[in-house]
Each structure stands twice: as structure tokens, then as C-alpha cells.
Amino acid sequence: MVVTGASGAGKSSLLRAGLWPALAQGKLSEQARQWPRGVLDRPTSAPLERLATLLAGLAGLEVTSVLRQLADHPEQCHLLVRQAVEADAVRRGLSGREAAASRLLLVIDQFEEVFTGVDSSAAVSSEGQAAALIAALHAAATRPCGPEQIPAALVVLAVRGDYIDRCAGFRLLAPALAQPFIVGPMNEPELRLAITGPAAEAGLELEAGLADDILAELRQGPGEPLAGTLPLLSQAMLTIWEHREGIRLTRRGYGRTGGVRQAVAASADAAYRELDEDAKAAARRLFHQLTTVTSDGIPARRAVPRAVLGIGGDDGSLAPEDPGPGLVGHVSGVARVLEVFTKRRLLVVDRETVQIARDACWWAGLSCEPGWRVIWRVTPDTASCSRMLTTGGAMAGRRAICTGASGWPAFGNWCPAGRPTRTVTLIWRAFPPSSWAPRSPRRLGPRACAGD
């Protein structure tokens, strides 16, 4: 079975807080209460070794022996799983009939990391390792064996939506991919329940209005789905709990934490620190690509086609021959940025586009970087600039935009050295000529601006 959805949609939460308790309560079947359960979380490298360690622990065998069998004959994994399940049943005192009917529930969380190997401390998994793991899992989930002639395992793969095409390259996954379980973004009532439900279960009280405050900060815009918010909500609730007053979770405690925005900023800072210098340069350029300016002069997220960024459409790999504008020479860095920021739910990548997960992802760590000041300064200065552009300041503003003149503060601090084109583009979008004072001496445009 394949569980898929965007990053941060709640796939892991569904499996750990939904499927696991349901099994323990006998909601899948009464027999399933007794099934052994295992999780391979982030199978970044040596996934067969991870699987061998799990099976060896259940069966009471040496890991090296199990690993050798898996590596040599992954298509016979069902026999190893059956042996492990029955050995575990005997150890727990189950009857022979219960042992024969048992299956292993095996969850592979963040299955996409079989392909990416993003853990910097580990080697990247090869295609051969991925193929061997998939062959082993397929055998365990589909090949009947044992006294009851049933598959030895129920295998659940949780994989990000933008890696479905990569999975489709493996024939053995085709049946599961034909009927995936898709986890969509939670709506506001569901998120409210995610705030109040666990607190009630833990015996905690929420101050009136606290849930409203949290939801207001999570909300992206009118009618916009709340995608990728669960990790942010989880972080926010943890910090609120750390600032609790007895058994009460309070609005005052929420204020002390800095709220969701601070949680995003902390996560973004941590992600940025993981990057080397080439990847940091790619991050600055990538965030520029993913940003636009509204007619009100406010920076906003925008979805950019993967092809524009030089990302292949079929398998998620980068296409060095076609990097996006401004990303030339940073293609490998883009790959690293996408992996690090997507893992932290700061970027959302699907099969067609890439976009910033939340407006709050414009964080202070980038505000002092060359080329980023325009994004960071545009919000507080918008009103001032708008007044000047509509009250006869158009010519002065135009010159300041082009030259980065420090004598006009509203624009002077925006123009990063060596990056005037990007600055002009952003300001031009925010304040088109049609919004300027009618008494401007001549029509202003990019050519006139460049030549002034």
C-alpha cells in the first residue's frame, strides 16, 4: 500500500497516530491486535541492512546472516518474514494457530529517501539498493507462504507526492501505485481538532481563544488549503506546552514562544546552516525565483514550474543542461536546497511545481544576504514608496531604483550591489507606471529607466 501526499500533509501522523492505535484496538481485525509491527524511518542508506536488522531482531538470528540472504535473494524475503513472525509469536506465548495467522505490519516512512540519500552522514543509496529493497518488500507483501498460505507482511510505503514518478519506474510497485491512499491538506476544523484533541487526551486545558490565535497564524489566505502546516503546528504546540501554566496552555505562553512564525524562522535558520556555500548561494537565488510582488507591493509566494528550475519532470532529478534563470552554476546546490528545505516543510514540491510553503519562510537569516534586502525591505517601506510615487516623486524614485542612491531611503537600501536588475523588476511589479502621478513628465519604462 502506498500512502502519499505533499510534504507536511500528515502522512507520518496518519500512520503513527492513526493506523498504529487502530491496530492495537482491533479495528483492522481482531487478529491484527497480535501482529508484530516495525518501522523503517528514513531509509536513507543501506536500506536492506535496516530491514535485516528488524527481521533478525524478531527471529533471533544474526543480522549478517539475514542480510546475506536478503542481498542474494531479495525475492525470497517472504520466507524470512514468515520465520521472523512465527518466532516472535512463540516468544510472546501465542498459540500455533495465532502464530500461523500473524503477519508483520511494516511501515517504510519517508520512502523517498531510498532515492535521495539526503542524510549527509550516510552514503547515497544506489539504484541497486532501492531495487533490492523493493523486490524484498514486494515478496513479503504478495507471495503466500506458511501454513495458512497468506502473505507474510502488510507493507505500507509513505512517500512524498513529488516522488511518485520515481517510484513508478519500478515495475513491482505498479499495483500499489494504481490505488494510492492520498493524504490531502487538513481543513480548518480538522486542524482545530488537532490542537484541542491531543491536549484534552493529555489532561490539559486550552485558554479560550488560543486555538483561534494559532489557526489565524497558520492560515495562508482566504479559501487557501492549509497544506504543509502539521509540522509547524506540532512545533508550535510543543513550545506552548513548554510555557504552560500548570495544566493550562495559555495565549500568554503562545506569545512568549513567538508563535508559528518563530517556529518557521528557527527551522529555516537550521536548514540554512546545513548548506555549504554553493548551496547557500543557490538558496538565495532559488528564493528569489519563488517570490513575486503583489499589486499592493507585498512580497508573495509563487509556484514555479519544475522545468524552469531545471528539475526533471519524470524522476525528480535535476537537469544540468536547463537550470532556471539565475541558477546557472548552482544546479547541484539547488538539489541540496530542495531536499533540506522540503524535509523541514519550508518548500512544497509536487510533480509539476515548487513553491515556498508559507509566507513566513522569508526569515531574518536571509534578510541580510546580498540580493535579499529587496524582499525584506519591501513590506515596511511599501506605504512610503507608494505615497512618493503618487505625489510627484516618480522621477526621483526612478533614478533611485536604477542607481541605488542612498539619498532616498525608501529605495536606497534596497538595491544590492551587482543585482540592480532584480530590484528594478520587483519594484516595477509593485508600482507599475499606471499607478504613478499623471503629471510625470514622460512615460517611464524599463528602457528609459536603464538609460537615465
UniProtKB/TrEMBL annotation:
Protein's UniProt name: Novel STAND NTPase 1 domain-containing protein
Per the database record, which ranges form the Novel STAND NTPase domain?
2-360
Q: Which organism is it from?
A: Acrocarpospora corrugata
Which InterPro entries does the UniProt record give?
A: nSTAND1 (IPR049052)
Pfam families, per database record: nSTAND1
